[in-house]
Amino acid sequence: MKSITIKGSERENVGKKATKAVRDAGMVPCVIYGGNQPVHFVADERAFKDLVYTPNAHTVVVELNGTSYNVIMQDIQFHPVSDKILHIDFFQLSDDKEIIMEVPVKVTGTSPGVLLGGVLRLNQRRLKVKALPKFLPDFVEANISELQMGNKLYVTKIETNNFKLMHPDNTVVCQVRISRAAMKAAQEAAKAEKGAKKKK
């Protein structure tokens, strides 16, 4: 999985006044959990642009005064009106411990059902995977090459390489729905066939 680097500085004072001052200065208060003790830090709000405002999933290297932490974003809070980032929680990664993370779904292949006029519906845009940090995928591939009209692709049909999908077996990733045009055409064809039989 691709990684991005965020540079920040550790916080000593984490009170409400200090936090407000941090936000007023265009900085985001953050915490890293998962280590021996939580690490509080701040970073420029612009530093999170490629992490937060993207459909892609990333691991993160947080650099604080010469110390690096390999982490993933665990939780984020936005202001209800302005949508500004208020706070971010990170979780520190360990090479030998599996973690659960949401990654995007990437559709590949061409569906015969879509070629016949069906409509592809993506039910799950992201899926939860469990893996060691080095095996975290950039995306989960959903191959629709065998989907006929009306078919569904379940998580059980997704190829998993060194990771597990954390969803029930009946979870539908995507499906090919019959479009109105295709349904109308099928109805008209059925009527025509019925009419032809009556004439005989």
Automatic annotation (TrEMBL):
What keywords tag this UniProt record?
Ribonucleoprotein, Ribosomal protein, RNA-binding, rRNA-binding
Q: Which GO terms describe its biological process?
A: translation
Q: Coiled-coil segments, which residues?
A: none
Molecular function GO labels: 5S rRNA binding; structural constituent of ribosome
Q: Which InterPro entries match?
A: Rbsml_bL25/Gln-tRNA_synth_N, Ribosomal_bL25/Gln-tRNA_synth, Ribosomal_bL25_b-dom, Ribosomal_bL25_C, Ribosomal_bL25_long, Ribosomal_L25_dom, Ribosomal_uL5_bac-type
Q: Which residues form the Large ribosomal subunit protein bL25 beta domain?
A: 99-178
Q: Which Pfam families match?
A: Ribosomal_L25p, Ribosomal_TL5_C
Q: Name one GO cellular component term.
A: cytosolic large ribosomal subunit
Positions of the Large ribosomal subunit protein bL25 L25 domain: 6-90
Reported function? This is one of the proteins that binds to the 5S RNA in the ribosome where it forms part of the central protuberance.
Say which family it is in: Belongs to the bacterial ribosomal protein bL25 family. CTC subfamily.
Question: What do we know about how this protein assembles, alone or with others?
Answer: Part of the 50S ribosomal subunit; part of the 5S rRNA/L5/L18/L25 subcomplex. Contacts the 5S rRNA. Binds to the 5S rRNA independently of L5 and L18.
Protein name in the entry: Large ribosomal subunit protein bL25
* Species, as recorded: Flavobacterium cucumis
Originating gene: rplY
